[in-house]
Design goal:
The chain is of the alpha/beta class. The protein folds into two domains: 143 residues, 3-Layer(aba) Sandwich (D-Maltodextrin-Binding Protein, domain 2); 102 residues, Periplasmic binding protein-like II (D-Maltodextrin-Binding Protein, domain 2, 3-Layer(aba) Sandwich). The chain is built from twelve helices and eleven strands. Strands 2-1-3-10-4-11 form a six-stranded mixed β-sheet. The protein has a five-stranded mixed β-sheet with strand order 7-6-8-5-9. Helix 3 links the parallel strand 1 and strand 2. The chain is elongated. The two termini are 22 Å apart. The N terminus is likely disordered.
């Protein structure tokens, strides 16, 4: 996904956020582990935070499952932003600071095809079922949306029929990239990861009756090296003025 920061930073929305940030006492580097689904709005918001606060934000990208494993294994960072159930699990395990969770954004599951292919009808549950059965190859993530789709296809009774054409890459892999290079024809992932990706055609969201919403939350690591700057960043990211920026990429405020 190509991100043009200038397009975001120049907006009045970001100007409002910048005005809200407090100036720093001491500049710090804030290391943030962030789910790929949040990449575009996070970069824009982080740039605005850096401009006003003087802190430096260093993102570490990945899928929810992969980043959760890194934190569980003791990787050092200040903030983790991934799916809420994984955040809660890590809080219980003492890896994240109790009481530091702040919901950042919500995302539904979207559908896309490789550029140049006809867009299937996905307006109903039966239409989605037909599109999946008709596709020559299907790709979905190993993260929250992928787990949900496995359950969904099981409920549709088509798991056995599609088993030979499903591709499920490791956590953090962009399904849009698989589609763009021809490794799959039909793909499912968080809407924000598909909406503006190149080499694909975004078809639309899952119908409301079978849609699954993932809540992405931020929390401080229990051993965060820069806790004060980390808290300031989380407050900035979850301010009401961030909402319109999230919605530009198909996300909803947390």
């Amino acid at each position: 996904m190509k991100v043009t920061l200038q397009r975001w930073i120049s907006t009045p929305l970001l100007a409002a956020l910048v005005a809200m940030a407090a100036g720093p006492v001491d500049a710090a580097e804030v290391k943030v582990m962030v789910a790929n689904a949040l990449k575009e709005p996070f970069l824009a918001l982080a740039a605005a935070f850096e401009k006003e606060s003087g802190h430096k934000v260093t993102p570490i990208w990945g899928g929810t499952e992969g980043l959760a494993r890194k934190v569980g294994d003791g990787e050092v960072a200040d903030v983790l932003i991934i799916a809420a159930p994984n955040i809660e699990k890590l809080v219980r395990e003492g890896k994240l600071a109790a009481g530091s969770r702040a919901d950042f954004a919500k995302s539904g599951v979207g559908i896309a095809v490789r550029a140049g292919l006809p867009k299937p009808d996905v307006s109903s549950v039966e239409a989605v079922r037909k599109a999946v059965l008709d596709a020559r190859s299907i790709a979905y993530s190993s993260g929250p949306s992928g787990r949900y789709l496995e359950e969904l296809f099981g409920k549709m009774g088509i798991t056995g029929e599609i088993k030979g054409k499903v591709k499920q890459p490791p956590s953090g892999t962009q399904i849009a990239e698989l589609l763009a290079r021809g490794d799959a024809d039909l793909g499912f992932q968080q809407i924000s990861e598909l909406l503006h990706a190149s080499g694909i055609a975004y078809v639309g969201p899952l119908p409301p009756e079978i849609q699954s919403i993932t809540v992405y939350s931020a929390a401080l690591l229990a051993a965060a090296p820069q806790p004060d700057a980390a808290r300031a960043l989380v407050k900035f990211l979850t301010a009401p003025a961030a909402g319109p920026i999230l919605m530009k990429v198909g996300l909803e405020p947390g």
